[in-house]
Amino acid sequence: MGFDLNDVIQQLGREEALKRMEDHSSLDGLEESVVKELLHLCEMKSEELTLMGYEKVEKEEIWAYLKGKNKKESPPLHRLVNQILSLKPNDLMNWLTINAYKGK
Question: Among candidates 75, 93, 104, which has minimal Cα distance to 3?
């Protein structure tokens, strides 16, 4: 019998878990208009993942994943867009699971 990651995150308190995941990263220096567009892409990706059967994946979780992945360097915009659009569900779920175990 497995567990549903969404249930685990919900039990931890979705908002609290997201706050813990959002450490300072190299993406903090982006302009507000760029962040707005990237968040829109994250929302589109979350809708895609929902269509693939992954329920309750939110754009904030994808954004936190992106921030966690790019803590050390500030990648060019085209690389950020590529990271969002090519995000595999398994990579996101692994990252969320690891951070849930770490308590972030």
Answer: 93
